[in-house]
Amino acid sequence: MTGGAGTDSRSWFLRDEGERARHQVVAKLSAAFAERAARYDEEGRFPHENIEALRASGYVRWTVPKRFGGEEISLYEMLLHQEELARGDGSTALAIGWHVGMMLNLRASGAFPEPLFEEVCRSVVARGALINSCASEPVTGSPSRGGRPQTTAYPEPGGYRIRGRKTFSTLSPALDWILVTAGIDGSQDVGEFLLRGEDVQVVETWNVMGMRATGSHDIVMDDVFVPAERLVSRLQPGQKSPRNRDGGGWLLHIPATYLGVALAARDAAVRYAASYQPNSLPHPIAKVEHIQEKMGQMELKLLAARTLMYDLARRWDEADAQARVAMRPQLGAVKTLATNSAIEVVDLAMRIVGARSLWKDLPLERFYRDVRAGLHNPPMDDVVYRMLADAAVEDVTQPGFSRSGN
User: Fold this and answer.
1) CA-to-CA distance for 72 and 20, rounded, in angstroms?
2) At 133, phi and psi to the nearest 5?
3) Do 251 and 352 belong together in one domain?
4) Fewest CB within a 10 Å sphere: which of 150, 188, 279, 326?
5) Where is the composition biased (Polar residues) (predicted)?
6) In this model, does residue 208 exceed pLDDT 70?
7) Containing domain of residue 264, as a range?
8) Do strands 217-227 and 231-235 pair parallel, antiparallel, or not at all (unpaired)?
9) Alpha helix stretches (DSSP H) within 354-400
């Protein structure tokens, strides 16, 4: 690690020159995104310009395996870049995070048949193709709650005909590949199917309070034909997707994004405090005791959440498949700590700036709205607490556990 006491927060977790060089590319993108973020938020419009810049920079292929022309960066490094992108625009970071995260997930889990995975990877490298998984539905909600999808796949010669609708389909205006779940007609099984983006209809339903530019619209499948070889997996009731074989480490792109937004809020508040001097004081408000306390609280919350995230990302990178699966409760803890800390940091930032923070010509009110969305990304807080509780019970009840004094 190249950081040290007093080191800029952007470089604190950078470990080597390769990460530093790629991070400089991302920092330039982030600065450009920050200039456009308010406009995209105000209009609730998908940031096509930002996505094209990410394609042109090569960022969309950085988590692709080297054997297919990618950079094969680690989970740890992916989080560095996602956090930095979110300092410029949270919506863009969250949207592209699903793509780069999913490519890392597919690389680690081996969930796709090799020929199909190679086809997707080469399309990402050659033309910047984008992929995401779209599984939530209006009635069943998040797939993490276990509902059977209403979207249905009807077998026919050579493949399947799919009919249905998915919600919260982030990145939908730019997707080339879409992994969808569908109940298979005539059975209790659920299939995972890889569709082409051009075969679905995007219905622009995304009109929300925060993360307004993620393009998380509905997608409609109206008799979409999918060849049999693009049935990625066929799951029996209660069976987990092969994509779960990596323990879900890739989902840390979510807390990284919200921590990036919180860092942007901290930057804005500290700059304001260091420069604003009312005529009632002989110095800027940064020297006022209760302002210093709030700034210190922000720093502590960010340090704790970021340190946990990067430590567990490093552990995930170094772990084997079995150990990665066992890390699921701790990975969930990162998301819960990070998103709740981000909310608290933005709140503190607004208290430092005061009523001025509510003005639309400052970014703090946008940061406030954006970080609230983190509560509704997976895994949910109640699920994480349950996983941690179960892990604690298993820990203390396993054979051979003892504590001195008992």
Assistant:
1) 16
2) -100, 130
3) yes
4) 279
5) 137-153
6) yes
7) 243-397
8) unpaired
9) 364-372, 381-397
Residue 298 has pLDDT above 90, yes or no: yes
What is the spatial distance between Cα 125 and Cα 103, in angstroms, rounded to a whole number?
A: 12
Q: Which CATH number does the domain housing residue 48 bear? A: 1.10.540.10
- Between CA 41 and CA 62 the distance in angstroms is 27
Pair 230, 313 in one domain:
no
Residue 127, both tokens: 């033309």
Shared domain for 213 and 266, answered yes or no, is no
Does 12 map to a domain? no
Is 68 inside a domain boundary?
Answer: yes
Q: Report pTM.
A: 0.95
Cα–Cα distances (Å) from 189 to 25, 155, 162, 166, 393, in that order, read 45, 12, 14, 18, 33
Q: Which two tokens stand for residue 252?
A: 């840390």
Out of 240, 265, 293, a domain closes at: 240
In a domain, 100, yes or no: yes
- Residue-level pLDDT at 393: 95
Q: What is the per-residue pLDDT for 273?
A: 98
Is residue 158 located within the same domain as residue 122? no
Q: 42-49 long-range CB contacts below 8 Å, 24 or more apart?
A: 44/206, 44/207, 44/208, 44/212, 44/213, 45/213, 46/173, 46/174, 46/213, 46/214, 46/215, 47/89, 47/91, 47/92, 47/95, 47/213, 48/173, 48/174
CB-side neighbour CA atoms (13 Å) of 107:
24
State the average pLDDT for the chain: 95
Over the stretch 51-62, which tens digit does the pLDDT of each residue have?
A: 999 999 999 999
Secondary structure class of 161 (helix, strand, coil): strand
Three-state DSSP class for 53?
A: helix
271-291 pLDDT per residue, tens: 999 999 999 999 999 999 999
pLDDT-derived band at 143 (thresholds 50, 70, 90) equals low
Euclidean distance between CA atoms 370 and 37, whole angstroms: 12
- Pair 207, 287 in one domain: no
- The 3-state DSSP class for residue 208 equals coil
pLDDT confidence of residue 398? 83
Count how many domains the chain has. Answer: 3
Domain membership flag for residue 66: yes
Judged by DSSP in three states, 154 sits in: strand
User: 404: pLDDT confidence band, cut at 50, 70 and 90?
Assistant: low
Q: Based on the number of CB atoms within 10 Å of its own CB, is 97 exposed (0-12), middle (13-18) or buried (19 or more)?
A: buried
Domain final residue pick, 182, 217, 240: 240
